[in-house]
Design brief:
The protein has 104 residues and is mostly beta strands. It has no helices and nine strands. The strands form two sheets. Strands 2, 3, 5, 6 and 8 form a five-stranded antiparallel β-sheet that branches. A four-stranded antiparallel β-sheet has the order 1-9-4-7, with no helix packed on it. The termini are close together.
């Protein structure tokens, strides 16, 4: 898969990055760069963001309420991932790569 990038400046949610849940093993890695004053949480959903259902978001188990650069992963399928900026006027930028997709 090509790199996907989500960015958010100020409070609120970034754009949603979708994943391919049919790849086995699933394997998604990501890194977040924090600039300025920012407190952010990486969130994921199991709902399909393309079918019109209400998305229920869950915080990543270790990348929640962070203020500095972080990296993490998802070893089991999730449908989509985003950044939630909890506070601050800085920026959080996440780069995501999913293994196993050629030419994504």
């Amino acid at each position: 898969m090509r790199q996907q990038i989500a960015t958010k400046t100020g409070t609120g949610s970034s754009n949603i990055l979708t994943t391919d849940t049919y790849i086995s093993p699933f394997n998604v890695g990501f890194g977040v760069v924090a600039t300025g004053t920012v407190n952010y949480t990486i969130q994921h959903t199991f709902n399909n963001p393309q079918d019109g259902t209400t998305l229920v978001w869950y915080a990543h188990p270790t990348i929640a309420s962070k203020t500095d650069n972080q990296d993490g992963n998802y070893a089991f399928p999730v449908a989509a991932i985003k950044i939630l900026v909890n506070s601050g006027d800085g920026t959080a930028t996440m780069t995501l790569i999913q293994a196993g997709v050629v030419g994504g």
